[in-house]
UniProtKB/TrEMBL annotation:
<dbReference type="GO" id="GO:0032259">
    <property type="term" value="P:methylation"/>
</dbReference>
<keyword id="KW-0489">Methyltransferase</keyword>
<dbReference type="InterPro" id="IPR041698">
    <property type="entry name" value="Methyltransf_25"/>
</dbReference>
<keyword id="KW-0949">S-adenosyl-L-methionine</keyword>
<dbReference type="InterPro" id="IPR029063">
    <property type="entry name" value="SAM-dependent_MTases_sf"/>
</dbReference>
<feature type="domain" description="Methyltransferase">
    <location>
        <begin position="62"/>
        <end position="150"/>
    </location>
</feature>
<dbReference type="GO" id="GO:0008168">
    <property type="term" value="F:methyltransferase activity"/>
</dbReference>
<protein>
    <submittedName>
        <fullName>SAM-dependent methyltransferase</fullName>
    </submittedName>
</protein>
<keyword id="KW-0808">Transferase</keyword>
<dbReference type="Pfam" id="PF13649">
    <property type="entry name" value="Methyltransf_25"/>
</dbReference>
Length: 236
């Protein structure tokens, strides 16, 4: 049965009724995977090192884009930062509010207005671009949300390793970008509509940033082809 907010449904069920089962995902990579609900409610100590490092880099007013159940926003609030948490999922925003996030908004970031010192896009938040063609418009919108001297903190992964054969050769479509993936979420009897998601390698992200007057700097690399980057405007 199709449900428009499978993620929110699962998060609310976990928060209000406790664990029963995790979200399953299927993708165009022909893989079935599990998204553990407990992982979406984790505290700072249980977060991956790249996420911890990203949170430590946050300053001033913060816009947590795709906040989910609000774990990142909660920690930032505890550090005394002013945080606005947004997500297109009404269920996710309900959970974030119930958990104590002070300022929550159901919104697509493309429709959001404001000025922030830090834009936070974790758990491959750059994936919201959907496709490589959507990366430029996304960066243009993010740039419009930056206060003078502001920063964008984003993590992603270079998934080229998934296309490597035993000879060390890569089998990818030369007419497309290998990081463009179609996903679908499943929880109990419900399934989301299929949606596009983007994984972008660091060099491609850097080139896209330069095309929009932005500079991309590597902060840290993870253990499994992932990285954390800071994006900011190029000084004249």
């Amino acid at each position: 049965m199709e449900h428009a907010d499978v993620l929110g449904l699962a998060l609310m069920d976990y928060l209000e009724n406790g664990f029963s089962e995790d979200i399953r995902t299927t993708s165009s990579l022909e893989e079935t995977d599990v998204l553990p609900l407990a992982h979406l409610f984790r505290g700072y100590a249980a977060m991956p090192e790249l996420e911890q490092k990203a949170l430590q880099q946050c300053t001033g007013s913060v816009l947590d884009i795709g906040c989910g159940a609000g774990s990142h926003s909660l920690w930032l609030q505890e550090q005394g930062l002013k945080v606005t948490a947004i997500d297109i999922s009404p269920g996710a925003i309900h959970c974030a509010k119930q958990r104590g996030v002070n300022n929550v908004i159901v919104s697509d970031f493309l429709d959001h207005q404001g000025s922030y010192d830090t834009l936070l896009l974790l758990m491959n938040g750059i994936g919201l671009a959907g496709a490589l063609a959507g990366l430029g418009p996304m960066l243009h919108k993010l740039k419009s949300l930056l206060a003078p001297g502001g920063q964008i903190l984003v993590d992603s992964s270079d998934i080229i390793y998934m296309f490597e054969d035993e000879k060390g050769e890569y089998w990818v479509d030369p007419n497309g970008y290998y990081g463009e993936v179609q996903f679908q979420m499943h929880y109990k009897k419900f399934s989301s509509p299929r949606f596009p998601w983007l994984y972008v390698d660091y060099n491609t992200l850097t080139r896209a940033c330069l095309a929009h007057g932005l500079q991309c700097e590597m902060i840290a690399e993870g253990a499994h082809y992932d990285y954390l980057a800071r994006i900011h405007t190029i000084n004249p």
